[in-house]
């Protein structure tokens, strides 16, 4: 209750700050996660839209979470790639840090699958996984791993993928021993992003699935994919020997696409 009152107070403060202290106009709240709140704002002269993301007010006294929020801004600034939002500016409103970034006027894969009911063929799923890997390789080359590549954080706009929410991203560690990774989601190397891409692929592939039996079976049984593709996904999910890098995972995916005639050879 106390936290709700506090968040409402900060919501009003942010709204008034945007309308009175910046060149932007408040439009609406976009999301409310465990660490941050995102708002849609607009530059009235150009009509261009942006996103203001602020830290949750209840975390404002936590040094650890403030550092984490500043790391999110720093990593996004370092990434600076066409398929991730650019940071426009950052600041503090009544002790609460915030930043303004590009707005990607697209649809998350979560909205696409679960709200719009869109379906993805095996061919389309592999093409999107390949596009995602191409983007992920670019920020891995800058030494950054995202660690939260879930379907609400991957957007599609004009058939192009965009990646948002670097709230769990970290600088990659090169000396992580594969055998000592207990939780692949939190691994501080490429393993985490590949693990999430494995799940991303499964969400897309399941979009066309309708159960034929009451009994739930494993994805390997339910999806009826070619054995080499099952093996590929198992490597992403670390059920089998993991890939050494996102580049290796992309090369192997391109072989899959060739093998299943999803790309032309000429
Ligand atoms: N740059 C952006 N362009 C378009 N939509 C965005 C952008 N950033 C955030 N959003 C929207 O706002 C929602 C929430 O943003 P985000 O995922 O960054 O933070 P959060 O989930 O609220 O916080 P956190 O995960 O850090 O606790 C997203 O799911 C997305 O719909």
From TrEMBL:
<keyword id="KW-0547">Nucleotide-binding</keyword>
<dbReference type="GO" id="GO:0005524">
    <property type="term" value="F:ATP binding"/>
</dbReference>
<dbReference type="InterPro" id="IPR020635">
    <property type="entry name" value="Tyr_kinase_cat_dom"/>
</dbReference>
<dbReference type="Pfam" id="PF00069">
    <property type="entry name" value="Pkinase"/>
</dbReference>
<dbReference type="GO" id="GO:0004674">
    <property type="term" value="F:protein serine/threonine kinase activity"/>
</dbReference>
<dbReference type="InterPro" id="IPR000719">
    <property type="entry name" value="Prot_kinase_dom"/>
</dbReference>
<protein>
    <submittedName>
        <fullName>Serine/threonine protein kinase</fullName>
    </submittedName>
</protein>
<keyword id="KW-0808">Transferase</keyword>
<dbReference type="InterPro" id="IPR017441">
    <property type="entry name" value="Protein_kinase_ATP_BS"/>
</dbReference>
<dbReference type="InterPro" id="IPR011009">
    <property type="entry name" value="Kinase-like_dom_sf"/>
</dbReference>
<feature type="binding site">
    <location>
        <position position="53"/>
    </location>
    <ligand>
        <name>ATP</name>
    </ligand>
</feature>
<dbReference type="GO" id="GO:0004713">
    <property type="term" value="F:protein tyrosine kinase activity"/>
</dbReference>
<keyword id="KW-0418">Kinase</keyword>
<keyword id="KW-0067">ATP-binding</keyword>
<feature type="domain" description="Protein kinase">
    <location>
        <begin position="24"/>
        <end position="266"/>
    </location>
</feature>
<keyword id="KW-0723">Serine/threonine-protein kinase</keyword>
